[in-house]
């Protein structure tokens, strides 16, 4: 899948901007942080609210909208920043090659944030999806592991 699952309308943009601003001020919005990636064409910083997930001591990011601009940007330049309040961490994002890791991350992500991102998911993918369904949607939900830079 090479596009977003759900169109990004004005309401979503306003909501994301509000979450990003509150996160930047240090307000804990269900664990949200601001991800900053460099534009693959412009080089300009792009800031997106994300929900980091810790699984087995490792931190991951899931792109519930699919292969969006932040995903494409991270694939070109994996160096990024995660921020909440004054705390800024420089990180490197890598996509796990192991399908089982990908499925485990997506399963945990949906269990934790399915209530928030359910409307963004491709039709047929729900927080209670079985392994076969999660494998089928592997390319539709990019996952990145977060490493210190």
Q: What would you say this structure looks like, in words?
A:
The chain is α+β, with helices and mostly antiparallel strands and 149 residues long. The protein has one domain (10-148): Pnp Oxidase, Chain A, CATH 2.30.110. Helices cover 32% and strands 27% of the residues. The chain contains four helices and seven strands. The protein has a seven-stranded antiparallel beta sheet with strand order 2-1-5-6-7-4-3, sandwiched between helices. Strand 5 and strand 6 (87-94) form a beta hairpin. The longest helix has 19 residues, at 99-117.
Residue share in β-strands: 25-35%
Give the CATH class: Mainly Beta
What's the helical proportion of residues? 25-40%
Number of domains: 1
Could you give the distance between the termini? 29 Å
Order of helices and strands: HEEEEHEEHHE
Low-confidence stretches: none
Which oligomeric state applies? single chain
The CATH topology comes to Pnp Oxidase, Chain A
Instruction: Please name the CATH architecture.
Output: Roll
Over the alpha carbons, how many angstroms does the gyration radius reach?
14 Å
Mean pLDDT: 86
Number of helices: 4
What does the overall shape look like? globular
């Amino acid at each position: 899948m090479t596009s977003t699952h759900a169109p990004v309308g004005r309401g979503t943009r306003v909501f994301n901007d509000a979450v990003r601003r509150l996160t930047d001020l240090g307000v804990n919005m269900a664990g949200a942080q601001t991800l900053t990636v460099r534009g693959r064409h412009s080089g300009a910083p792009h800031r997106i609210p994300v929900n980091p997930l810790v699984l087995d001591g490792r931190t991951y990011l899931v792109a519930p909208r699919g292969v969006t601009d932040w995903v494409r940007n991270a694939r070109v330049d994996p160096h990024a920043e995660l921020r909440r309040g004054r705390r800024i961490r420089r990180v490197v994002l890598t996509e796990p090659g192991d399908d089982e890791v990908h499925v485990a991350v997506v399963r945990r992500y949906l269990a934790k944030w399915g209530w928030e991102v359910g409307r963004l998911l491709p039709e047929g993918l729900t927080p209670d999806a079985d392994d076969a369904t999660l494998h089928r949607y592997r390319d539709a939900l990019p996952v990145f592991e977060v490493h210190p830079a």
